[in-house]
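In practice, a research group might receive sequence data for several interacting partners and want a quick structural hypothesis before committing to experiments. The following worked case mirrors that situation: the sequences arrive first, and a predicted assembly follows.
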Amino acid sequence: MPANSLQSQSQPESQSESPSPPSPYLLEMRGITKQFPGVLANDRVDFNVKAGEVHTLLGENGAGKSTLMNVLYGLHQPDEGEVRMNGEQLSISSPSDAIARGIGMVHQHFMLVPTLTVTENVALGLKSDRRPLTDLPTVEKRITELSQAYGLQVDPNAYVWQLAVGERQRVEILKALYREVSLLVLDEPTAVLTPQEVEELIAVLRQLATDGRGLVFISHKLHEVMSVSDRITVLRDGHVSGETTPAETSREQLAQMMVGRPVKLVPDKPEVDVGEVKLVIKDLEVEGDRGNLAVNGISLEVLAGEIFGLAGVSGNGQRELAQAIAGLREAKSGTVSIDGTDVTNAHPSSVRKAGLSYVPEERMRDGVVSGFSVSENMMLLSRRESEFARFGFMRFGAIKEHSSNLVDRFAVKTPNIDTPTRNLSGGNIQKLILARELSSSPKVILAAQPTRGVDIGAAEYINEQLAKQKANGCATLLVSEDLDEVLALADRIGVIYEGRLMDVIDAKTATPHQLGLLMAGVAKAA
Amino acid sequence: MTEIRQRLLRNAIGPMVPLTAVLLALIIGAFMVLAFGGDPIEGYRAMFSGAFGGWDELSETTLRATPLLLVGVGICIAFRSSVINIGGEGQIIAGALLCTTIVLVLPDLPRPVLLPLALLGGAVGGAFWGWMPGMLKAYAAVNEILSTIMLNIVAGYLMQFLLLGPMKDRQSEELGDIAQTERLSENAKLPTLLEGTQFNLGIVVAVLAAIVGFVLLWRTSLGFEMRAVGGNQIAAQYAGMRVKRNIVLALTFSGMMSGLAGAVLVLSSTAHRLSVESGPSGFTQLAGFNGIVAALFGALHPLWTIPASFLFGGLLVGAFALQRAVQVATPLVVALSGLVVVFVVSSESIVTRAREWAERVSQIAKGGSSSGNEPSTPLGATDPGSPRAPDSASEPESTQTPETSSETIVT
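A structural hypothesis for the assembly, expressed as tokens:
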């Protein structure tokens, strides 16, 4: 069996070491310190995993989770500290070392070759028993065994490009299991899944743990963390700010450990009297990149003082819908109008003039010019307004004042307004975009995944700002894959599936279960 | 304190690296001279004095630097807008042709009218030659690298055709087919700045153009838009900018600068006529390509391109002095300037690495330990705030280093 040949490669090495003292831990990371220029990414971090447990690593962006896992996976060398597995000290200098030691990792962005089959992807990089020939039937047989044993349903002969996101993730897990890992690290595995898929995944993870493997689960979704973990370690600013178990803690406590101060997880939902219709979308059809009908006849209305949440699994037409509204993608048929102005297929500048603000989904890609300074990015919209430009020349005094003002008001953490935007963290870039978009006193806000990848503190702030705009009588279309966020913020929730609006539900009566079924395309849940 | 020093270090490295690149090229060149049996030290001495050794040499260098600077400024405008303009040669020729035509048609206008008009003609001609690939790129998705190169060839043949046909010098007819115009009106001669030298108004025009280029890019809303389009087309479009219009404008402005170079070349030529005797590149002195190097040498900044053009122009002039002094084969001179180009162009990655190095050094000086391992890409995109690119990790995160918050919450 190919997997055994891999095992045997690592065997002689481990035997040559001195007999290891018995250790209660499968993995032990002691006093890991890693310094980067200007940042102490890990400061004497202790982290350990027992065989048979799911240990969650929780922390905000930049807290040092990735650095710690990169040390484990051999991508970084720690400045201080040691890594032990089964009590034996290791020096892991590359991912292949890590794999040989039985450490597997499922990355957030899948590392699969789309044009190869599932079997081929699993076999990739392994030595075949029949080399130089491949031995795919054996691999396939083993995949089938594994997928049956753990309920990881996937067709071994399907091409990866044919698979849905959830299935691709199963392939990643199978890949690790095939290599007989004893320790499996999952980096934000639930980010791309529907609530039902998350439940399935959690069941798989529990079973993997029961079979004696150690699992490291990285996530920032607190309710998942509470339901899957045996233990939770929280990192903040590079050091361990606490270790606990779900039984001893609460989501609020976890959030506080992550941020260092009490955090309001569920934002206040101001009661606002809704006004007139601000955004009207009627029978909109939009083609996707591959010429498919990505938006297939959607009609909806958003009123002043209302947040309309559009929930759905990523890739069901949200991106195309948002782009069509903003004038960035051609609508095949149907109309879009903002505050009474028909803006169907209008130039983005006209759409903005009609009163739209747009917080794009891919903020680094679509929202800012990363080489520009904070101040320049603040001016991206108002570059020609008479306040900031006279006779075609920019008025730097006014621009500087305006930018500093916005940086203060929206709590953008930046050394100064001339700092290149690419040096800011994701959350601060999102705040910058929000500052720019909301300061133009919009009538309609189109916010796509406004808090994705943003740390809890910044998310709390962003949600507050959206609620404030709502109180100001703004109509907001909130596109989000995060059900918690939609439920917490929206007044009405529409679910999009394969380019169609499945249903629109009042947020007061909506349940995650009901929305989850709609997100999976199951028509009206009774 | 450390921060100030760090910043100083970083800013000092910027201009130092292209200089180091030239130095490296010269060191390798020295071995080449040795291999050809010459004395490199003597050669380089000749080279330096040939470029900067006296008023004659300096004015020769200035003459050479003027078109480099004008083209270079145009390149700054194009490249900052993410448009790759390789069409400097063609735009120089187009500018020269229109400028010459104006002077041929209206030779008797007084100098204060004719001269600006001729320069304007050059600018318009070059702008047209840049506008074409701009339109093609914006509205027909034609790659501008291809179209500008092709238009170089078109311009070259167009010049040959015109100079052998409608614009041909009638007086030299009996001498055979010489592709040149008649001697141009004296009113169209660029005035000399210093009596008895070759310094002429051209360099003033070029320096002014560099200032205009700088103001355009960094002081006007239009330049802001062009740079935004260059930095991120999607973000620019979504902010309501007209991306296509900006692409056309960038190439048009860029061509305009090259066209101005063409006008200056004609109006300051010793023969005071447009001639294609030694081929189109004999007229342009390859400034359309060398200007790109000057601009890159000047970090794509119009003002830095001024000294860069002088240095590169001096190098080109001095190389021939070197060849004469140590009697090496002419191709060596070409090879030497080629080496400089390669080193200068690759210096950008050297800058990046030097910055990393400088930051690490100042880190060590600060007391922090640092392993030789570079922070490579983190796990996934989960932690965009964790150290990524080494040059970006330094500033913002330092506000949240562990020293600032030591309290620990244990439940």
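Before designing any experiment, note the following. The radius of gyration of chain B is 25 Å. Confidence is low (pLDDT under 50) at residues 367-411 of chain B.
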